[in-house]
Amino acid sequence: MLTLVGMNHRSAPLDLRERACFAEDQLEAALARLRACPGIAEAMILATCNRVEILVRSDDPAGAAATVRAFLASERGIDLGVLEGHVYVHEGPRAARHLFGVACGLDSMILGEPQILGQVKRAYEAARRGQATGPVLDRLLQNALFAAKRTRSATGISRHAVSVAYAAAKLARSLFDDLRGRRVLLLGAGKITELAARHLVSQGVGSLTIANRTYARAQTLAESLSGTALPWDDVPKALERVDIVLTGTAAATPVITRETVRRALPARRGQPLLFVDIAVPRDVEPETNTLAGVYLYDVDDLQEIVDDGLGERRRAAEEAWRLLDMEVVAFDRWRQVADLGPTIAALRERLHAVGREEIARFGRRLAPLGEAERAVVEELLRAVVQKILHTPTVTLKAAADRGEAARFAALYRQIFGLDLPGGEKGEGSGPQRLIRGGKDE
Amino acid sequence: MTRGLLEIAIVLHATGAAASFAGELRKRAAWTRAGALILSGAFVLELAVLAMLAASGPAVPVRGGADYLLALGCLVLGLHLVLSLGRGLPGIALVLPAASAAMVAVALVLPSTPPSGAALEQRGWLVAHTVVATSGMAALAVAFAMAILFLVKDRALKLKRSVRMLERFPPLETIDRVGFHAMLWGFSLLTLGIATGLAMKAELHRPLFAWSAKEVFPILAWLVFAFLLSARRARGISGRRFALLAIAGFALGILTVLGMPR
To answer: Which residues pair with A183 in a beta bridge?
Structure first.
């Protein structure tokens, strides 16, 4: 049975998430200690800045959540009472569904963000290195990673802009063939402009020039962004050669007037110029947008793009869940069929044992038979048992396909008086049998 | 037979143009693919009609306004298929297939004219003239389509339309670049077309210029494009003005058909 115990940005405050977080180099040792806990057969820990989740397969479904909670509390030195108020628990197919959603970015703070897929992959690799995974988690994680990749591409969930920086880059791509080689002028050295500039730099813009009323601040920011500082008075001249102007100063009145831009246009020889003004009050006179080849977007325009992008992502998320739910059902069917292994094996063993007992009971009456005849009788009995077994086995597998494996398995155990070694599901339960490469025969 | 084939071709052409338009507008890849497939069929049929026309009667490729528009529509469609396959330019399917379908539809309506005896005397010049002039107009049709896309995208950017709307079209810079290159090719071929036309008239000992639509409109179109290209080179003119003049130049060029025999 799968159990997932976790906390995320919605369930726990940042200071608690910080305390609960595992560093990547701590994972293997932590997983080894977790696997030493009673009943934990397989385990994986996903630790990111926004979530800590522990996924286990346990032979003790009833106690697994408590075991993992206690492990997390003791491992990270958190009071168990405090922890319990901030963690969620998902069991069985819901745990698988949650993991599929997480891998796809559907549970992320920024809906559909792509980094989580890599983080899940790294968490899985750490668990594999620590030999903490087995057939069920291997299958689950491989399915989750594959499904997340496919779903992201099918729904295009991350295509839509959900931040001002992303929206600015999207606008720029709507104007220019390629952002590589583009010249960007940054006006102001505030935090938001810096973030937006960093995003543009990450998109491969060619050069970044930074101008600020305080030249020293422009220089500091230019150093951190590998750009060039520009004296404030040179800004009008710079407008003649840049492609994108990103502005966010704290000025009370516009620092770029329509007239300033108009004077720069002849030297631009028809090259389009994009202004992204994220300052409030605005840095660029709104009338600038009326100039040919000049496109001005202020913070409200960008917010509209962001809202639009969020709406698109929500719509894409609905579609993504629909696709992932099909994958979850497929995984659950696989797990149920795998879990049937011990029941089918016990059933066969039971019926063949009946056959052997009957041969023994008829021993004296079969004594006159020669070795060859006796072998024929035994073979006949085995064939009869096999024929009898065929329909119940097929029925059981069909029940698993309908999601009724557990009910049918219990029914069979009751009807045939099956006694599975190692408890309810047996020691060599389905997935463990898969490790051994066991078949039903 | 030729007319029957042409009728089938125009039905396919119009259907393909409608499917491509709808696919591009609604962002349905399946419709766009179906449109491209149908348009390819129409292109093959139109080429076959042109070949049959050339093979029947006196072998002059373009005998009048109807043949000219058919050849132009077919060439523009061919250019659209090449551009949409090779460059994958979104938005182009909104303009070129519809424009080329309109040309072929008008060709179907106009009566076909036998060539004049004088024209047949200078068949070599006539072939060269019609091939380069028609190819030039086809390239200018692409410049025209790009100019329309430019105006639409420029307007969308100025009015801050949704990102989804903006994504329907290629980046503004791409539209401008493709349009400019198409115009360069078109202008060069149009220049050659005019030169071969003049040479043909010189051979026939006719006045080099007559005040007819067939001669005035190409010259006007040539002047517009010559101004546009030189202004772009000298002062970097581009944007809306460039797009509007490109549309005007193409409109003047297409009016040449008014002076052709009907």
So the answer is: A207
A160-169, A185-194, B81-90, range with greatest mean pLDDT: A185-194
pLDDT tens string A176-189: 988 888 999 999 98
> Is pLDDT above 90 for A99?
yes
CA atoms within 13 A on the CB side of A204: 7
Residue of B nearest to A309 (CA): B163
Out of A171, A269, A312, the one facing B236 most closely (by C-beta) is A269
**Which of B41, B43, B35, B32 is CA-nearest to residue B15?**
B35
From 3.40.1010.10, 1.10.10.10, 3.40.50.720, 3.30.750.24, which CATH number describes the A164-300 domain?
3.40.50.720
What one-letter code names the amino acid at B108? L
**What is the 3 state secondary structure string of B101-147?**
HHHHHHHHHCCCCCCCHHHHHCHHHHHHHHHHHHHHHHHHHHHHHHH
Cβ-in-10-Å burial (0-12, 13-18, 19+) of A232 comes to middle
Give the integer Cα–Cα distance in Å for A76 and A68: 12
- What percentage of chain A reaches a pLDDT higher than 90? 49
Element spanning A5, H or E: strand A2-8
Q: Which token pair is A330?
A: 């497929």
User: How far is residue A58's CA from residue A45's CA, in Å, rounded to a whole number?
Assistant: 15
As a CATH number, domain A2-160 is 3.30.460.30
Regions of chain B where pLDDT drops below 50: none
Q: Mapping DSSP to helix (H, G, I), strand (E, B) and coil, where does residue A437 land? A: coil
Enumerate the residues of chain B whose CB falls inside 8 A of the CB of residue A271: 236, 238
Average pLDDT over residues A337-362: 85
Instruction: Report CA torsion sign: A244, A245, A247, A252.
Output: negative
Out of A255-264, A428-437, B111-120, pick the least confident: A428-437
* Average pLDDT, integer, range A41-61: 91
Contact A270 B239 (CB under 8 A): yes
**B241: Cβ–Cβ under 8 A, 6 or more apart, which residues?**
A292
What residue spans define the domains of chain A?
2-160, 164-300, 335-436
What are the DSSP calls for A199-248, one per residue? HHHHTTBSEEEEE-SSHHHHHHHHHHTT-EEE-GGGHHHHTTT-SEEEE-
Best of A170, A171, A174, A301 to disrupt the B interface by mutation (most B CBs within 10 Å)?
A174
Contact B163 A174 (CB under 8 A): yes
A292·B166 Cβ contact <8 A: no
Question: Whole-angstrom Cα distance, residue B73 to residue B137?
Answer: 10
B136 Cβ contact partners less than 8 Å away, ≥ 6 residues apart: B185, B186, B187, B188, B189, B190, B191, B192, B193
Mean pLDDT confidence for A117-135: 94
Per residue in B146-182, pLDDT tens? 999 999 999 999 998 777 777 788 899 999 999 999 9
Question: What would the pLDDT profile of A379-419 be if each residue is shown by its tens digit?
Answer: 888 899 899 989 988 888 888 777 787 788 888 888 888 87
pTM, full prediction? 0.68
Residues of A labelled catalytic:
49
pLDDT at A429 over 60: no
